[in-house]
Amino acid sequence: MSMMALGSAIGAGFFLGTGIAVSNAGPAVLISYVLAAFIAVSVMFALAELASALPSTGSFSTYAEVGIGRWAGFTVGWLYWVMLIMVLGLEVTGAAAYFVGWFPQVPQWVVALVIVVVLGGVNLLAAGDFGEIEAWMAGLKVAAILVFLVIGVALVTGLLPGRSAPVGEVVLGHGGWIPNGLPGVAVSLLAIITSFGGIEIVTIAAAEAEDARAAMSRAIRSVIGRILVLYVGSVLLLVALLPWDSEEMRTSPFAAILDMAGVPHVGTIMEVVVFVSLISAFSANVYSSSRMAYSLSARGMGVRWLLGAGGRPATPQTGGHLGPVDEAGAAMLDVVRDEAGTGDIAHGRTPKRAVMVSVFLALVSAALNWYLPDVMLAWFLNAVGMVLLVAWVFIVVSHIRLSSRLEAAGIERLRMPGAPWTSWLVLVALAGLAVLMAMNPEGRAQLLAMGVLTALVVGIHHLRQWWLARH
Question: Domains plus CATH for the chain?
Fold first, then answer.
């Protein structure tokens, strides 16, 4: 579970986007990372508390249904699923492009098809076998970052020659600590905060663990610790060794530092690492998207066919939210039991139909990335790029509404540090982030696209409820 979460969170964006974030904020990018890490870690602790109490394949979609309302579970679940399908297309397109760069005689569409078929087959394996394969792929990325950290520390401390200038001159000699002011920090924060996305897979996988509560407790702590060390440690070394305004920082910072240390074939090494990052994240996202679609269908919010042989959708809840405090435990457990007693996963099997749908739509999404008009593609990517923030808001609100009721019901769980005040502070931080986005032209476009897509999904839910009520 830990390595699956790392595999999803440490994608190509970490290697390709970190330098751009530093270029926007300068050395003060560390402020952005600290703020983003606080928000992401707090959200994950809130989600872990709910998942350790009520393990569910639907994860935050299930908790939004129980804690806020059925419309919320439908909305955040299908928004997340749409985001993952689009991301799958981007990942397979990027991985195929890297492969064709090494072997130009191979058509890119053939490479994309092979990647989708092979990793789709891996996802059809039993959850334990899939998790082991995913752990090996994620392990390669983690090993690459650890090697980078060792080399970077050796350069900073002088154990390896090759450093171009003293650390103080690199950090402060190019316009000071905050060369672009607070707007630069804000712009980098918008880019960084979404890079922490992917670790929520650990709560989706918890439902298939032998001991969900124990696995969740171990996994969430290890994932948070490793993410902080790998992310923040890498950024510290980038800031200490490369001027923030250099071309290398914007284009290929990791390769530049490895080249500084005299590592041969750094370009090819980094391309291989990014390729592995893409296919690993693709595999993890097929897992997440298939489980989310299965869970939504099991709770009567999707397509019955996805449940597999003998599957039946749960009876729709009329209210979808908790009743009185003394009924809290029963109300929550009813929703999770409806899901857990339905379809393939209930019988210990991989939800093959949901996996096949995700794999097929990954190919469709890849084709759309190639053929959609630029304006339409940009609008859609803006919308799905912000879905993570919508999901985080639903997670925190669900935690605020459910934590006291879990306590009253006497359900054991992993406790979120500083609750409930931490959750309220995170909501304030996310609201502040939305204000920062509104002050930036690109951010405003993302907010607008996200609002339109969210309103569309909410409208689909209400239209669906009206249709079911009439038939």
Answer: 2-470 (1.20.1740.10)
